[in-house]
Specification:
Aminopeptidase; Acyl_CoA_acyltransferase; 224 residues; acyltransferase activity, transferring groups other than amino-acyl groups; 7 helices; binds coenzyme A; N-acetyltransferase domain-containing protein; GNAT_dom
Length: 224
Amino acid sequence: MPLLLLPMVFSDFDEIIAQTRTAPVGNDLVANPVPTCWPVKDQESAHARAKWHLERQRERFLQDKTAFYLKVVDTDDNFNIAGIARWHYYPEGYSFETHGHWEKSNWDTSVDTTAWNWELHDRILELRDRSRESWMLPAKSPCWILTHLVTLPEQRGRGVGKMLVQWGMECAVKSGLKAYLEAGVMGMDLYARWGFGTVGEAILIKDSYGQVLFQMAKMVYPTK
Ligand SMILES: CC(C)(COP(=O)(O)OP(=O)(O)OC[C@H]1O[C@@H](n2cnc3c(N)ncnc32)[C@H](O)[C@@H]1OP(=O)(O)O)[C@@H](O)C(=O)NCCC(=O)NCCS
């Protein structure tokens, strides 16, 4: 079944949201840390989560000039979207002051917060983004950053993730720049296999007892 890498278009976001009305719970394209901070048990909450998340991505698609949204479709399966990624090109390097606002949840009172831990979500992303200027060195130099990567669970292991990551790796090589990412537990080994190297200590988000709630490895490509 041939896979094809394409830029996302505006209507893709609504298509992805709509799929969560019928797909098995959790078989969606919601990227971490949202699933960690908003676990879902039924179709209604899975749809609410996807709607919240993907509508924000749609807004960013229109407004954030640094963002490149990509999808991999299965040409033998009605061009259904198997995975998506968001790469960024920062021509003046990443600046938390300029770009940090994008990741705030802007908590919406219409969302049921019994399951949605938006404070943890904002804490994870703020720590991730604030630390960038300390390890994506030299600070404020042009770079590529991968911030969103997810393949539908039923499509995993077919090379979708690799296609989405390699797009940005090739951009980095062609432009003579570095590509960076903060890898969750599921992605770390894959990125290392694909050529990324780890930089320094992992970013750890802990609760008040010191227990690790979320961790991210800081990674760079190429390593030299
Ligand atoms: C991480 C993730 C994006 C990988 O996507 P994917 O489309 O399965 O990735 P690929 O198929 O390109 O690569 C998976 C690798 O595992 C291997 N693999 C083998 N069997 C597999 C299986 N059953 N499931 C997954 N991977 C398998 C593949 O061969 C491939 O190895 P290779 O790079 O040596 O060829 C996907 O697991 C995911 O969406 N996870 C949840 C979100 C997440 O954690 N995102 C990353 C945040 S940093």
